Amino acid sequence: MADIKSPSVNDGDEVQQVPSTAQGDISKSVDDHALDEAAKYLANTEEYAPMTPEQEKKIVKKIDAWMIPLLLFAASLGAVDKVQIGTASLYGFQTDNNMVGQEYSWLGSILPLGTLIGLVPASYLVQRVPPGKLLCTASLMWSILTIMYAPCRSWSGFMALRFWLGFLEAAITPSLTMLVASFYKKNEQPPRNAIIFAYFSSVFNGFFAWVVGTIPASAPLLKWQYLYIMTGSINVIYSIFLFFFLPDSPMNARFLTAEQKFHAVQRLAGNRTGIANRVWKWDQVWEALLDIRIWIIFFFNIVINIPNGGLQTFGSIIISNLGFSALEASLLTMPFGIIATGGAWLFSYIAARSHNKRTFVASIALLLPIFGTALVYGLPRSNIAGQMVGLYFMYFYWPPYVVGISLPQANTAGHTKKSVTYSLVTVGYAAGNLIGPQTFRANQAPKYTSGVVVMLVCYCVCMLLLGLYWFIATQENKRRDCKYGKPEVVQEGTAEGFIDMTDKKQHNFRYTT
């Protein structure tokens, strides 16, 4: 048995030193509700020799090889189901269903509205249900709804389907975020976020659209119906696969040996954010709701996703309006994913390698979509090449979003607080996606001037919010250094990193900026 070194528990302003205990007795020293499940796991697990750097590299590679493909395809296929409404429009979705005015724009906005309403149950479920199982269940239900698009032929029916898709998304994104935080150290999270939250949906969507484009006109169903049947069916099968093969944490990862599980858990102690605790704690809820850093990221997510909502719904239509056929337009959307994903990987790598420069890296990345939006706004529609270059550069909005969501991952401790925080971040994402399609007015086609201007404003506001986040977090770190001294490093084998305590109550916690 390994000796679990005694942690300091902050009770209000007073720091109480928990007595050192044998590993099997640690739960007697600390209130059982205060212990993260990782601490309980370590307290009841056979002792192993200290982990070597070579062993850690092997463990991380093994986790990457298993978790990244599983989560990447879960996120990408779910996103395909969500964004393919634009591709369906290239194949007559709007005309076949007699849509007029802003009806199509509202189909873009109703999905994130469902996510907003799904906040309350999602916050509770993310806390109480293992994230892997929650992700699988929500993904399966999402996929079944996608197949139901095919028989639906009314605007009200599509509105209902899109609403429930959004409602389920309130659980999917926090589950993915929780899983990344449960397997990786803080400095490892940004590049993994970039891969898992990659914009591959445009690549998959473009490929599926090309397949549908080859279906002859004599086929019994409309082309857009085949699109939804195909993508929904693939995702149903994949969701069932995930249920059996996706772990919830290193503690139940079947691809790791017993010793590797032990070390995979221990190495996360330095995060000071814990792995899992199923007890709902109202004090952590209120702390999350009163934490200004969380609200800054919440508003950042709203503003950065206003362009996302517009481009997801209207990106392929903008290309079509430049004079390309439906098949050509669907293929030309594929670089959206390559550009957004490549940019996210690059800037996330830089953020991971640069100590406490994530807000700066995200701000620099925002210059690229500003450049692209300015091109689209300033160049004449007759300049097809320039318009396409500008449109592609507009998709560089994704890298600052991916870097931005790594901040609450790194800076939020306490399992209930993390659940509420990740749900609030998702609500911000949903609110931005709700607003985005409404900035594209049907009577302004094909230039959509208001949508483009709003994008420019959003990117500038994002820079201001990132600067504010950096200032507040930096000042708090300085205050803690002055009051408590430099933080002590959590050593391997200590329970301190796995006490279910929020970041505000840990005197040794310092915020990543």
Automatic annotation (TrEMBL):
It is a multi-pass membrane protein. Residues 17-26 have a biased composition (Polar residues). Residues 67-477 form the Major facilitator superfamily (MFS) profile domain. Pfam families: MFS_1 (PF07690). It is found in: Membrane. GO terms for molecular function: transmembrane transporter activity. The chain crosses the membrane at residues 65-85, 105-126, 133-151, 163-184, 196-219, 225-246, 294-319, 331-352, 359-378, 384-407, 419-436, 448-471. Its main location: membrane. GO terms for cellular component: membrane. Keywords: Membrane, Transmembrane, Transmembrane helix, Transport. Residues 1-29 are annotated as: Disordered. This is Major facilitator superfamily domain-containing protein. It comes from Pseudomassariella vexata.
